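In keeping with the milestone schedule agreed at the kick-off meeting, the structural modelling team has produced records for the first pair of proteins. Each record is given below as a sequence line and a structure-token line. The laboratory manager (R.T.) confirmed that both were archived under the project's standard naming scheme.
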Amino acid sequence: MQKILSIIESMAHEKNLSVESALEAFKEALINTAKRLEGEEGEYEVEIDHDTQSYHIYKVLTVVNNDDPRAQEEPEKYITVDEAKSYDEEIEPGDKIRSEIHLEEYGRTAAANLFQELEYHIQRRIEQDLFDKYKAKVGSIIIGTVSRVDDAGNTYVEIGELKGILSQRNRIKGESFKTGDTLKALLRFVSIDPKYGMHLELTRTAPKFLEELMKREVPEIQDGAVEIISSARIPGERAKVALKSDRPDIDPIGAAVGQRGVRINAVSEELCGENIDCIEYSPIPEIYVTRALSPAIVQNVRIENNNTAEQKAIVDITSDQKAKAIGKSGINIRLASMLTKYQIELNEVEGIVERAPSGTEEKTKDLSALENLFK
């Protein structure tokens, strides 16, 4: 078996596995083979000599006092001082005795066991490397080719060495795929189960997918000049993204939207026409909530801290703006709440926001919003 190290290296290259991982698998295989032949309870060590391309397996016994009960209870691990002196007269309790095991003496039985163990551990190492490789990509966009769609609406995607699964609940409502389509999705996590083996769970509905798409389309986000603070989505319908930039020469909203909306439109197209509102983040909660409720114009915002995990924002709004703040089926206020992490409560106040002639800004007759400025 002296040439087996060269075989191990060849296997590593063939299976795209590092030589170090392959050698670790070989060591585990040697130890398990020795346990089958010599005893499961024993302790074993393996040394590999790369210069001579050889390996050595040792059974290790720990020396204990003559009256130590472990010598009787676990003879495969412990040996008394008196017995150990037959190996070395100067040996003391706590020392280790190593005796070499020669697998060749066990003939074909050893070879068959070693091959079986090696095959198993090499495969485990390959799977572990794959797991680590894709685990590092969790939260990023994965591109693959649709291989099939089952009756339950689950879409199976070929991605490199593994298969990805885009379940129906992780798919944007109304979209469909067919075999051969190129699919872009966010990697949620790497999973191992008895039915599918190791596979990648994909999603196109997570807010993080929107953020990663924007990062790809907007260079300022990719290089860190513009930061995405938060995002909220109702997949396939509408989304809100809060952006900020610490550089005075960069407009975060303009950078995200792009000239004539080319950047944000590219993201929207990937999300089946999802409308995306970009707002500028503010560390001042009242301003942040006000911007999140756009296009509605609010009169005043009060933040209530009730010493609970969920903070509340009381928003004063006129009757003509209330419908805009709520949005169709409550979508606008839901997204604003998800984006800001505040429970938003609308408080209708008197006043009307009038629509001024074209080219001018909207004005309100209600001046109550200015009262807090002079307190």
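The second protein of the pair:
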Amino acid sequence: MSDLPVIDALTEADLPRCAELEASIFADESPWPLSGFVAELRAPHNRYFAVRTAEGAPVAGYAGISVLGPVGGRECEIHTIAVDPVHRGARYGWALLETMLAVADAESAPTFLEVRTDNRPAIDLYERSGFRVVGTRRNYYQPSGADAFTMVRPAGGMSDQEERP
């Protein structure tokens, strides 16, 4: 038996669980309501994924990426990655990130994201996956006023010499 998580497409049936996780994980940062998840999932340029402990299990985490721009000039933007605190440390966030980066790599697109400047575990994960800080957005997260780093991973990702987690 494998202890690897199952990654699949997020469905509308999963969204109430996502909104529940969002409210608990991001309680101080204007969590997305259920209607926000519905709109994100329905947008044709977005791809959302779920991580589960097993096939058919409830959502243990979720992530979303947009593919923007014309063919040959695409850019991707990671909207969110969230993992139920019960499953943190099990590499679920990494599995979701790798899934989204495969979408970007298939489009030969650079990938952008924002991350709290004080979220060292997430920053470390992104740096190990080829992202680098390119700017700071002051007071990005509301209502807390926390700053965010803007990070980018070039199209095609990392060189073969760089280490992955």
